[in-house]
Amino acid sequence: MFKRVLLFLATNILVIATLSIVTNVLGLHSYLTAYGINYTQLAIFCAIWGTGGAFISLFISKFIAKMAMGVVIIDPKHTNQQEQYLLDIVYQLSRKAGLKKMPEVGIYHSPELNAFATGPSKNNSLVAVSSGLLSSMGRDEVEGVLGHEISHVANGDMVTMTLVQGIVNAFALFLSRIVAYAISIAMARGDEKSGDISYLTYGLLTLVFDILFTLLGSILVAAYSRWREYRADRGGAKLAGRIKMIDALKRLQRGADIEDDRAPSLAAFKIARHASWFELFSTHPPLEKRIERLTKMVL
């Protein structure tokens, strides 16, 4: 537990420190002037803060996955029977998906029935499978799960998900500062003693609107993530076979009560996750909807 907390804090300190240095060096903190907002500086400031953190996290995602989840990478030259079995499936599906470079393959010890794919690019990816999944699923079901994950890699979903998240973050930061400034100006004009805006008021309003717009933006990100899961299910059905993909989802449905929350940042990249209490904020569609869509889908 202490190791995970330390890793989380170190990662966030690294991101904040890096982005602070970049924006200070570029002089972007001075977007608020005596003449109003410098929209160009504000846009660049928000773009750096909005997308920078997301892409730094993407670039170190494999390292974070290995550390946070305890993923043990399989060395193709030294494998036992189970490891070779897993490598054979991943490599077969990867070639079928047209990947030029095979992903790293790893196992993490957890009772949950799950798997995920991460990494900064198609040619620098990691596919990890839980020990619980390997011990509970037959070969056909494992092929369905891995077909889904290889589809994520082949579709470049790690990068596009990061890009969507970064753009939404940037727009949220940009809009919150414009709205906060407009309200601060309106309040200052109503103040007979001073025509200048209160920077304390502006700061508090910015914080409130940051939270509001980020919350609204997360609905868009979650919607894209759900569509991405449907697309990976379809891809998994093409790579491994529709029946195998459906059987895999049904098996995941039966084991959905066990969930490993060691690395929340990886949750969106897992094949299965509990649906949010409010579906608009859920990164995964309900498994029953995914099964129904696959059953009706024309491949």
CATH topology: Zincin-like
Distance between the termini: 44 Å
How can the largest sheet be summarized? 4 strands, mixed
Amount of beta strand: 5-15%
Identify the quaternary structure here: single chain
Note down, in words, how this protein is organized:
This protein has helices spanning 2-25, 39-59, 61-69, 81-97, 131-136, 139-155, 157-189, 199-240, 242-254, 287-296, and strands at 32-33, 36-37, 72-73, 104-108, 115-121, 124-130. The strands form two sheets. It has a four-stranded mixed beta sheet with strand order 3-4-6-5, with helices on both faces. It has a two-stranded antiparallel ribbon with strand order 1-2. Strand 1 (32-33) and strand 2 form a beta hairpin. It has a single domain (70-299), classed as Zincin-like. The protein has ten helices and six strands. It is an alpha+beta fold. The mean pLDDT is 86.
What can be said about this structure in brief?
The protein is α+β, with helices and mostly antiparallel strands and 299 residues long. Helix content is 64%, strand content 8%.
List its traits.
four-stranded mixed β-sheet, Zincin-like, two-stranded antiparallel ribbon, 10 helices, 6 strands, 8% strand, 299 residues, alpha+beta
